[in-house]
Amino acid sequence: MGKGQRSWPCLTVVGGFVLVSWTSLRRGEALALSWGAIDMPAARIHVRADRGRYGEGPPKSSTGGGIVPITPAMVAALRRHNLAQASDAAENGGRVFRSATGGAIDGDNCTRAWTRSLHKSGVRHVALHTLRHLAVSRMISTGASPKAIQAVVGHASISLTYDTYGHLLPGSLDLLAQGLGALEASAGVTGHAEGFAN
């Protein structure tokens, strides 16, 4: 790893929070994540389950599971975590995140761990779900289309994505003007004054 670059932490509970802050996984989706749902070569997470108070079930989204892209740094961290679990992964259901005893992590315990982490770090309290919003704001900052973001976060409709994150999206009229300007430049148009001459 080059000078100045940072690796991801080992995917303990804290590492799991970091993963959520970059992928937009819901708490239950992260807790239900299995190694079989991660395509390392393609750098994709397939959201196939959600863990709630009464166990695991299908994803919360009415559209079914989404496909979440992950960065090379995420893949590297997941590979390290997978190797650390290799000796007993099969007997623990292939879960990416699990309790100290090897079982599934309870959602409320996960939230309490988040609260303790904030308190220990001296950071003011914010809801765990805020990490999902942080991830989406990062996606928006890359210039990704709202439709692509909708697919990743698992919203049932594009209107929900706009209603929730529309205030963070660049102004559509500004983008339209920029796009038209780019078309002008590619066509060699330098001005329109002659077109309005009497």
Summary, kept brief:
With 198 residues, the protein is mainly alpha-helical. It has helices at residues 13-23, 27-31, 72-85, 107-121, 130-141, 146-153, 158-165, 172-186, and strands at residues 38-39, 44-46, 50-52, 55-57, 67-69.
Characterize the structure shown.
With 198 residues, this protein is mainly alpha-helical. It has a domain at 13-144: Intergrase catalytic core (hpI Integrase, Chain A), CATH 1.10.443. It has 8 helices and 5 strands, in the order H-H-E-E-E-E-E-H-H-H-H-H-H. Strands 1-2-5 form a 3-stranded antiparallel β-sheet. A two-stranded antiparallel sheet has the order 3-4. Helix 1 crosses helix 5 and helix 6 crosses helix 7. The radius of gyration is 21 Å and the shape is globular. The model is unreliable at 4-11 and 192-198 (pLDDT under 50).
What's the SSE blueprint?
Blueprint (H helix, E strand, L loop, with lengths): L12 H11 L3 H5 L6 E2 L4 E3 L3 E3 L2 E3 L9 E3 L2 H14 L21 H15 L8 H12 L4 H8 L4 H8 L6 H15 L12
Antiparallel strand pairs: 1-2, 2-5, 3-4
Helix pairs in contact: 1-5, 6-7
Helical content band: 40-55%
Q: For the report, how would you describe the main beta sheet?
A: 3 strands, antiparallel
What are the segments in which pLDDT stays under 50 over at least 5 consecutive residues?
A: 4-11, 192-198
| CATH C-level name of the domain at 13-144 | Mainly Alpha
Strand content: 5-15%
What would the keywords be for this entry?
mainly alpha, two-stranded antiparallel ribbon, 8 helices, 5 strands, 44% helix, disordered C terminus
